[in-house]
Specification:
With about 230 residues, this protein is mainly alpha-helical. The chain contains eleven helices and no strands. α4 packs antiparallel against α5, α7 runs antiparallel to α8 and α8 runs antiparallel to α9.
Length: about 230
């Protein structure tokens, strides 16, 4: 009977210790990670990117499944020109949190900085359905335009037009911007007229017409179509 009582007492004591330490240790770990995050941000604000790098690396080592820490580490690495390492961490951040446009765009930016155009385009094509409806095609168009792939950009904008239907002027404004870049005045005017269909009183669009030597007015509005 005595031995049984001792065993029960020992088990109860262990359970009490484990029960009291678990939440406390978790809180301590959370405080430690928050401290790392704040110190990393202060270091970056002070211009000490190497210290920020070390602190975010420690954070990721402790909690590798934190998508935000993976992103911050990758972002700092990109700032330091550590593109291979950055791409690895930014890819992990995106894998952990798909559809986060900030993660997609930073990874795309870093691919461009690293001279990996094909990888950037593959990323943008694979993520056209991530983010707000229809914006993925415009994102693909913008990144293609940035690296000089103007035909790919035009095709992506046309896809955005199909996807948006008659609900948004953004694809038509994007087409006008592309047309301006390539010097296609007729296409630029047509795209602006289609954009005007959504907002016939747009001051911004009227100013663009004036810049093209076209007298603005609601009558210029043209119902959107995709060629």
């Amino acid at each position: 009977m005595l031995n049984r009582s001792i065993v029960i007492l020992a088990v109860s004591s262990i359970a009490l210790i484990l029960g009291s330490c678990g939440p406390t240790q978790k809180v301590k770990r959370t405080f430690a990670l928050n401290d790392l995050s704040m110190r990393a941000k202060r270091a970056e604000s002070a211009g000490d990117m190497q210290q920020a790098l070390a602190l975010w690396q420690e954070y990721v080592d402790r909690r590798p499944h934190s998508h935000s820490a993976q992103f911050e580490l990758g972002r700092v690495e990109s700032e330091l020109g550590m593109y291979t390492e950055s791409i690895g961490h930014l890819t992990t951040a995106h894998d952990l949190r798909p559809a986060n446009v900030q993660y997609i765009e930073k990874l795309g930016d870093t691919f461009i900085l690293a001279g990996r155009t094909d990888d950037m385009m593959q990323l943008m094509r694979e993520t056209v359905n991530e983010g707000e409806d229809g914006t993925g095609y415009l994102r693909l168009a913008e990144y293609a335009r940035r690296v000089g792939l103007l035909d790919d950009s035009k095709l992506a904008i046309q896809s955005a037009m199909i996807y948006a239907g008659n609900e948004s002027p953004e694809p038509y404004i994007a087409m006008a911007d592309l047309a301006k870049q390539i010097g296609d005045r007729d296409l630029e005017i047509k795209a602006l007229r289609q954009a005007l269909w959504f907002d016939p009183a747009s001051d911004e669009l009227n100013q663009r017409f004036l810049g093209l030597g076209v007298i603005p007015g609601p009558s210029l509005a043209l119902e959107p179509t995709v060629d």
